[in-house]
Design brief:
Layout (H helix, E strand, L loop, with lengths): L2 H7 E5 L4 E3 L4 E3 L2 E3 L2 E5 L3 H13 E2 L2 E5 L4 E3 L4 H6 L9 E3 L9 E3 L3 E5 L4 E4 L4 E3 L2 E4 L3 E3 L17 E2 L5 H15 L4 E7 L9 H15 L6 E7 L8 H14 L1 E4 L3 E6 L4 E5 L5 E5 L2 E3 L4 E3 L1 H4 L28 E3 L12 H19 L12 E8 L2 E7 L21 H19 L6
Parallel strand pairs: 4-6, 5-7, 5-14, 7-10, 14-25, 16-23, 17-18, 17-23, 18-19
Antiparallel strand pairs: 1-4, 2-3, 8-9, 11-12, 12-13, 15-24, 20-21, 21-22, 26-27
Helix pairs in contact: 2-8, 4-5
């Protein structure tokens, strides 16, 4: 974007009367601007940043482009598997419930990014011009990379995957209970290689199903296998060691560097690639599948994609979340190329960073806001107990609060209550744009 265009966008300083913003009701002045801000993606990150920018800008033209006609509370999928949530209605709500009436919503897919000309094209063949672009398009679930798997089978015949859809979350719980009430068998849980949304979810699934089996009273007749393509359970060493100890007690067996490649639903067998180049075969009576994940095709095949360290992901500075080559472009959420941080908790921490840095560009000031990689994972252990895990780029335990609410290494009823009942209201407030700045 040219200097002359940028100068034209800034039409005034701040409002005389400040607008109330933030949960604590602090006063912030709005910047008058005619900037065209296009947000690609209308999930948690897209809706959250649209509403947040409305708090700080007056006159901006904010547009969100997303094909999904509803909002999906994806952190609730493990609660569907646990049975704490009962129906798909517990995780599905109307987009309009969160979107400010001044924000334009276009129900379409992005079919092309053209950052050289500050344009995107949609599936409706519309060309949309922007002054600033925020990419929050999420990830693609690559079930297609698992040979023999038909996603229509998920939720049937012992096949589960909470990632697929709200309906699959409900059906996966039913399959888990059916397996736990049987006379025994092999339970298999998979974890793909590389970045994925909520990397703790596959382990939560293993914990929950093992818990259901124990409740059935025939634990000795079941084997529980966790097949991960990675070489550890969790990237934070102290959390990894704690979970290893718990699994030793609960007789959950971890198989490292085993990546699911194929499945035969008739014979109930799965095949995994291994480091020595051979395939390991594993029988199953119940299998929870987590598919490989990648940025959606329009991102990974675009000029915006990283072709180096985070191949296919949006090429951003991991602290400012500003694109490294197109400085009027920012990224949010799962699609960004950062070492960690594909959780709703990360989005909550990223929103004020992107908002502040975009404001800095509008004011022709230096971009200074930084995201430290904060993320969190309430590690569910059973129905009623969890451990609250928080960390950042240091890969050391941290807490977002001025004090530690629960010991992150101890089994906690409070951590379960936070996951089940307290995180959703905070999430909904985040969608409305209320986060610290």
């Amino acid at each position: 974007m040219s200097i002359s265009r940028r100068n034209l966008l800034i039409t005034g300083a701040s409002l005389g009367a400040a607008s109330a913003a933030g949960i604590l009701g602090w006063e912030l002045s709005k910047l008058e601007t005619q900037a065209r801000i296009l947000i690609a993606g209308g999930g948690a990150a897209g809706i959250g940043i649209a509403n947040k920018l409305q708090m700080y800008l007056k006159g901006a033209h904010i547009t969100v482009v997303d094909p999904r006609p509803y909002h999906w509370y994806q952190p609730g999928q493990t609660l569907l598997l646990a049975g704490a949530y009962k129906t798909q209605a517990d995780v599905v709500s109307s987009n309009q419930q969160y979107i400010n009436s001044d924000i334009k919503w276009i129900t379409a897919e992005i079919s092309e990014f053209d950052p050289e000309h500050n344009q995107v094209r949609t599936s409706k063949n519309d060309a949309l011009s922007y002054d600033y672009l925020i990419v929050a398009t999420g990830l693609e679930l690559r079930y297609d990379l698992i040979e023999g798997l038909d996603t229509q089978q998920i939720g049937k015949d012992g096949i589960a995957s909470i990632y697929l859809s709200p309906e699959a979350g409900v059906a996966s719980h039913q399959q888990a209970l059916k397996f736990a009430q049987s006379n025994g068998g092999e339970a298999v849980f998979t974890r793909p290689h590389g970045a994925m949304k909520c990397a703790g979810a596959p382990m939560k699934a293993a914990n929950l199903v093992e818990y259901f089996v124990r409740k059935g009273g025939k634990r000795e007749q079941f084997n529980v296998h966790y097949m991960t393509a990675e070489n550890s359970l969790f990237a934070v060493k102290v959390f990894n060691k704690r979970l290893q100890d718990i699994w030793q007690e609960r007789q959950i067996t971890a198989h490292y560097q085993h990546e699911l490649k194929a499945i035969d639903t008739q014979s109930q067998k799965a095949w995994f690639s291994t480091p020595d180049g051979t395939q390991a075969q594993q029988p199953w009576n119940f299998i929870h599948i987590v598919p490989p994940m990648s940025p959606i095709p329009v991102v990974r095949n675009s000029a915006l994609a990283d072709n180096d360290r985070f191949k296919g992901y949006l090429e951003v500075d991991q602290y400012s979340l500003q694109h490294k080559r197109y400085h009027n472009v920012f990224g949010l959420g799962d699609t960004v190329g950062t070492p960690i941080g594909k959780t709703a908790a990360s989005v909550k921490a990223q929103l004020p960073v992107v908002a502040k840095n975009l404001l800095s560009l509008l004011r022709e000031e230096k971009v200074t806001a930084r995201w430290n990689g904060y993320t969190s994972c309430p590690m569910i252990l059973d129905v009623g107990h969890a451990m609250l895990w928080e960390f950042d780029y240091s890969m050391q335990p941290v807490t977002a609060l001025p004090f530690e609410v629960v010991d992150p290494l101890e089994k906690s009823q409070l951590a379960w209550v936070m996951e089940k009942s307290l995180i959703r209201p905070v999430y909904d407030v985040m969608l409305e744009g209320y986060t610290p700045i």
